[in-house]
Amino acid sequence: MSEIIELARRARVASYALAEASRATKDAALHAMAAALRANTDAIVAANAKDVAAARDAGTPESTVDRLALDPSRVDAMAAGLEQLAGLADPIGEVVRGYTLPNGLELRQVRVPFGVVGIIYEARPNVTADAAGICLKSGNAVLLRGSSSAAASNEAIIAVLRDAAESAGLPADVVQGVPTDRAAVKELMQARGLVDVLIPRGGAGLIQTVVSESSVPVIETGVGNCHVYIDAEADLDLGLEILLNSKTQRPSVCNAAESLLVHASVADEFLARALPALAEAGVTVHGDPKVVAISNNRPTTDAGAAVEGAGDVEGAGAVVGVGAVVGSVVEATEEDFGAEYNSLDLSAAVVDSLEDAVQHIRRYSSGHTDAIITRSQAAARRFTTAVDSAAVVVNASTRFTDGGEFGFGAEIGISTQKLHARGPMGLPEMTSTKYVVTGEGQIRT
């Protein structure tokens, strides 16, 4: 028997005990896990330091290193997420619908666990605790396959979580780590019958590999090419604040804005303010010809004088903001408009109408989160109806598409597919249902 099959069999056995566990037992385990994470912060951070050092030695981009890194505050946030989960309602046993049929049969559709969930994810070791906690609360045993870049971090976290679960009376095997080698991952994707569902969480390449090669049912969590559209009737002050928060508050995450669209009627005024602000924040704008043209017309300092030495590079304009901070506007390629940068880069285009914005989003959006900034209720209604994404936002940052921000507690990921779950996946999305039929001797005629 291979190691993966053995892990899956142990998870299956553990899932039976977990499915019958009371809410009190599961919540006690979550609190024990949170306490254990805090008690072992130094060991977890030390293990993470090895991963971070190895990543930097390998030339890993700093945006990825940021996703990988842990410090005491991030470990505490992981623990707090588990405690928040303990305070949420238990989805197991919830009656989704129920009624009495004409023949007297009582019919109830109730939430039940999937059983065994496999999660394949990249870089971020905080996902290890989040995923383990959500799966435990929703009654699922979990097989966690993190990336090799976070191997030491994940091993330390999983060991802490397993001990804590066992101390609360649950089998340690409700949480297990999976080896990071490719052969093990392929075997996990073929463990149909032992693993009930796989959830990939990471870049487009990872997700497509799991979707294409897995015989286990997959719930896709999508990449985030999120748009902010500044409408003709936008409050431009509000629009600028929302754009900067969406792009720069944490650029390495999937709900950060990657694309800006501006209505032509406000493009000169808005971009004259937005380009310097983005430049000061260190953002490189990949603009269409109209954005580049606007940037070329505004190479000014605070005093309004031409910037000496900030001449155009080929196909680009230089924009100088407060304090003479230089940020570049470069010509966008076709690939730029479909990119999830996860960095301080932003594609930008000027559109002639709301309908053109919708068409642009339909072509390039990943279906994660797209936002409109407008004072027009009609424009907002049209946008929310026409844009088919997991989250459509009016006059707010794209950064709110998050399980914690939505009040779900820690999330397993953000699904961009349309079957079973869509958007931030909290506890209810980690369940299936079954029908409980109660009769008094009825027979079918």
- Note the main sheet: 8 strands, mixed
- State the share of residues found in helices, binned by percent: 40-55%
The neighbouring-strand order within the major sheet is 10-11-9-12-8-7-13-14
> How much strand content do the residues show?
15-25%
Shape: globular
Task: Tell me the radius of gyration.
Answer: 25 Å
Total number of helices: 15
Compute the average pLDDT.
91
Derived from helix and strand composition plus strand pairing, the structural class reads alpha/beta
Topology, number of strands: 17
* First-to-last CA distance: 49 Å
Sequence stretches where pLDDT stays below 50 over 5 or more residues: 299-326
How does this model look, in words?
The protein has helices spanning 3-19, 23-39, 41-57, 62-68, 72-87, 126-137, 151-167, 182-189, 204-213, 236-248, 264-280, 289-296, 334-337, 354-364, 377-386; strands spanning 95-100, 106-113, 116-121, 141-145, 175-177, 197-201, 226-230, 257-263, 284-287, 317-320, 326-331, 345-351, 369-373, 391-394, 414-415, 423-424, 431-438. With 445 residues, it is an alpha/beta fold. The strands form 4 sheets. The chain has an 8-stranded mixed sheet with strand order 10-11-9-12-8-7-13-14, with helices on both faces. A 4-stranded parallel sheet has the order 5-4-3-6, with helices on both faces. Strand 7 (226-230), helix 10 (236-248) and strand 8 (257-263) form a beta-alpha-beta unit. The two termini are 49 Å apart.
